[in-house]
Amino acid sequence: MPSQTDGATPTYNAVYTASCTLSARCSPERSYKSAKKSTAAEKTKAARPKPEAPDEVRSVEVIKTVGQSSLMIGWERPPLDELGCSNGTFVYGYRVFVDGDFHKSVMSSACTKCVLENVNMSVPVHISVQTLGSNGFSSNSVHTTYSNSCQKRPPLTHSVIMVA
């Protein structure tokens, strides 16, 4: 129910506004606009490529060791369009594996470094990174191997050869 105050624009109470909104939703004018929007949406969907698995990351590398059992790694993210998509799939992060086992998720496509904790660096470490996309899509893994150049080696046994 509108009320006037000094010739100003009418104001409505909450009950009237709610019923007005309900009527507007059901009006033929509104239905026509909705039909136009859905047709435009269908055309846009038809123009978009079918989503596929995102591209792989590039150049996975160990940046440095952190303490005695951690590694900082980094990678170059896959090419993304202006919406953050690769092959029509939104990229939301990365999955990191150590020696074939899941180690951690990085939940941002912009974050391209992480620290891997509790890594046994006395043996070569196999590291893999995979791009994560929407709708369950993920890329193939990209691998690298880290070998600590100062790994403990078995002690040398000394042999004494006597020449007579």
Layout of helices and strands:
Blueprint: H1 14-26, H2 28-47, E1 58-66, E2 70-76, E3 85-86, E4 89-98, E5 101-106, E6 113-116, E7 125-133, E8 142-146
Antiparallel strand pairs: 1-2, 2-6, 3-4, 4-5, 4-7, 7-8
Overview features:
about 160 residues, alpha+beta, five-stranded antiparallel β-sheet, three-stranded antiparallel β-sheet
Molecular structure report:
The protein is elongated and about 55 Å long. It has two helices and eight strands; from the N terminus they run ααββββββββ. The model is unreliable at 9-28 and 153-160 (pLDDT under 50). The chain has two domains: 14-47; 58-146, Sandwich (Immunoglobulin-like). The termini are far apart. By secondary structure, it is of the alpha+beta class. The chain has helices at residues 14-26, 28-47, and strands spanning 58-66, 70-76, 85-86, 89-98, 101-106, 113-116, 125-133, 142-146. Strands 3, 4, 5, 7 and 8 form a five-stranded antiparallel β-sheet that branches. A three-stranded antiparallel β-sheet has the order 1-2-6, with no helix packed on it. Helix content is 20%, strand content 32%. β1 (58-66) and β2 form a beta hairpin.
